[in-house]
């Protein structure tokens, strides 16, 4: 499973809209859409931390069982 797929799955299970999630973490709805549809190669550590917090989990739990490589954080958080 890709990270974007997992984020979408959890977001829907929790009944959170894309724009609501975006507002809660300080980004835009289209940014969330790009993450979920894998139109972005990486997710910043700040974004992942915000999403994990909204979902009530750690970043480790969020990326667990996904095709996400921790080095991808480094590409986007310079």
Q: What does this protein structure show overall?
A:
This protein is mostly helical and 78 residues long. 63% of the residues lie in helices and 0% in strands. The protein has helices spanning 3-13, 18-25, 29-36, 45-55, 59-63, 71-76. Helix 2 crosses helix 3. The longest helix is centred in the N-terminal third of the chain and has 11 residues, at 3-13. The protein starts with a helix and ends with a helix.
Question: Summed up, what is this model?
Answer:
This protein has 78 residues and is mainly α. It contains six helices and no strands.
* Multimeric status of the protein: single chain
Strand content: under 5%
Q: How many strand units?
A: 0
Note the total helix count: 6
Secondary-structure element sequence?
Answer: HHHHHH
Q: What sort of overall outline do the alpha carbons produce when their principal axes are compared? A: globular
Uncertain parts? none
Query: What is the CA-CA span between the terminal residues?
Result: 26 Å
State the share of residues found in helices, binned by percent: 55-70%
* Largest beta-sheet characterization: none
Supply Rg: 11 Å
Mean pLDDT: 88
Global structural class: mainly alpha
């Amino acid at each position: 499973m890709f990270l974007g797929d997992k984020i979408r799955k959890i977001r829907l299970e929790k009944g959170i809209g894309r724009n609501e999630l975006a507002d809660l973490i300080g980004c835009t709805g289209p940014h969330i859409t790009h993450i979920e549809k894998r139109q972005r190669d990486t997710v910043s550590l700040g974004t992942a931390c915000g999403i994990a917090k909204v979902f009530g989990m750690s970043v480790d739990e969020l990326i667990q069982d996904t095709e996400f490589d921790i080095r991808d954080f480094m590409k986007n958080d310079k």
